[in-house]
Design brief:
With 146 residues, the protein is α+β, with helices and mostly antiparallel strands. The protein is 31% helix and 38% strand. A hairpin with a 5-residue loop joins strand 5 and strand 6. The chain is elongated, with a radius of gyration of 15 Å. It starts with a helix and ends with a strand. The model has no long low-confidence stretch (mean pLDDT 95).
Length: 146
């Protein structure tokens, strides 16, 4: 089991959703969430809150992969999401640092001030690979106190 999966499993709310790390690379994170009746809304599709939780988990893992090696931790600062269609089935969230992110400049800023900010773009897809949510998650990075 990966260290990231162990971290997700240690967060009770995330673990309850049954989310699993499906892919982990420096520039890309994929998190899967099973289809379960207790994650459905009154219409029988995946509840918007469960979809949002999946997206935020993927974004958080992507942001943490950048911040943690620098001795930083992340705080969610803002989010913009757009639900694009009803969701059914096992969902996957793919997260990538926003294209405009200059990781080297961000690392230098963080090293100098103990602070930084980054954005992560996320797409949640259904089993047919159709997007059900598109979003951007903005994080503050702060130095971890030892």
């Amino acid at each position: 089991m990966s260290t990231k999966q162990t971290l997700l499993d240690s967060i009770a709310y995330v673990a309850w959703h049954g989310q699993q790390v499906a892919a982990l690379a420096p520039d890309r994170v994929v998190i899967a969430q099973p289809d379960r009746p207790d994650l459905h809304n009154y219409a029988g599709t995946t509840h918007a809150g469960a979809i949002y939780t999946l997206a935020e988990t993927a974004a958080g893992v992507a942001a943490d992969q950048l911040a943690a090696p620098w001795g930083g931790f992340i705080l969610l600062a803002a989010t913009q999401v757009r639900y694009t269609r009803r969701a059914q089935g096992t969902l996957t969230a793919e997260a990538r640092l926003a294209a405009a992110t200059d990781a080297a400049a961000l690392r230098d800023e963080f090293a100098a001030s103990g602070r930084g900010a980054l954005a992560v773009d996320v797409t949640v897809r259904d089993p047919q690979r159709e997007p059900v949510l598109e979003g951007r998650f903005d994080y503050a990075i702060r130095r971890r106190k030892t």
